[in-house]
Write a structure and sequence with these properties.
Blueprint: H1 12-37, H2 42-72, H3 84-113, E1 121-123, E2 127-129, H4 133-136, H5 141-177
Antiparallel strand pairs: 1-2
The protein binds protoporphyrin IX containing FE.
Residues 25, 28-29, 32-33, 36, 49, 52-53, 56-57, 59-60, 104-105, 108-109, 111-112, 121, 149, 152-153, 156, 159 line the site of protoporphyrin IX containing FE.
Keywords: Cell membrane, Electron transport, Heme, Iron, Membrane, Metal-binding, Transmembrane, Transmembrane helix, Transport
Cofactor: heme b
Organism: Gluconobacter frateurii NRIC 0228
């Protein structure tokens, strides 16, 4: 590693948002799979659906904040030891992750809005959340809901694969390349900028 390279961290806000997203996505995948394939009682399913919708909308709102942060801040530079192809792959991966963090929650929201059951969404049992009018006012909701369910499910499976790659890349940098890339996203309170 050249002597001129020193690890510049992400800001505190970016680091906090990153880990909130990571925990919430893990929870959404587990809850999503359980509620669709778990064979649970109707009461438990209802509760899990509401929790899934609440966390999913939280992720959507956090993605908006994250995107605003990203557009208004320059992220720390990648180390000079990375090949141009690797840097392009890293950037492409991050753009796809950002896109997924919008597309998957939006398809979830759209599928709930086009549901034939019309069950209201109340975030964390406290805040009523509206349906998307374009979908809630459809005359024939069932086929639209079915398509959105498929897109949402396959989008979520693709996200699981993408997150797995993201984690493997971070571990490769930490333990094989030892270039401290992973440390940029870890909170060291005294060392992180706001
Ligand atoms: C990053 C955000 C999200 C992730 C990773 C995610 C993940 C998942 C997963 C893994 C499933 C199970 C899919 C299957 O195997 O069929 C699922 C189902 C579902 N999700 Fe999400 N979800 C997200 C956001 C949302 C949001 C924002 C909503 C609604 C406001 C939502 C509503 C639903 C509903 C209603 C189902 C059940 C669909 C069915 O009955 O087939 N999701 N989600």
């Amino acid at each position: 590693m050249p002597a001129s390279w020193s690890v510049e961290r992400y800001t505190r806000l970016a680091i906090i948002l990153h880990w909130i997203m990571a925990l919430n996505i893990a929870a959404l995948v587990i809850i999503g799979l359980l509620m669709v394939h778990g064979g649970l009682t109707p009461d438990t399913m209802f509760w899990l659906y509401q929790l899934h919708k609440s966390i999913g909308i939280t992720v959507l709102l956090a993605a908006v904040v994250r995107l605003v942060w990203r557009l208004s801040h320059r992220p720390p530079p990648l180390p000079p030891t990375m090949q141009p192809g690797e840097k392009t792959a890293a950037h492409a991966g991050h753009i796809i992750l950002y896109a997924a963090l919008f597309i998957i929650p939006l398809t979830g929201w759209a599928l709930v809005s086009s549901s034939v059951f019309g069950i209201p969404t109340v975030l964390y049992g406290l805040v009523p959340w509206p349906d998307l009018p374009v979908f809630s006012t459809l005359t024939d909701k069932a086929p639209v809901e079915a398509v959105l369910k498929t897109i949402h499910a396959y989008g979520a499976y693709a996200l699981i694969a993408l997150v797995a790659l993201h984690i493997l890349a971070a571990l490769r940098h930490q333990f094989l390349l030892r270039d401290d890339i992973m440390a940029r996203m870890l909170l060291h309170w005294g060392k992180s900028r706001l």
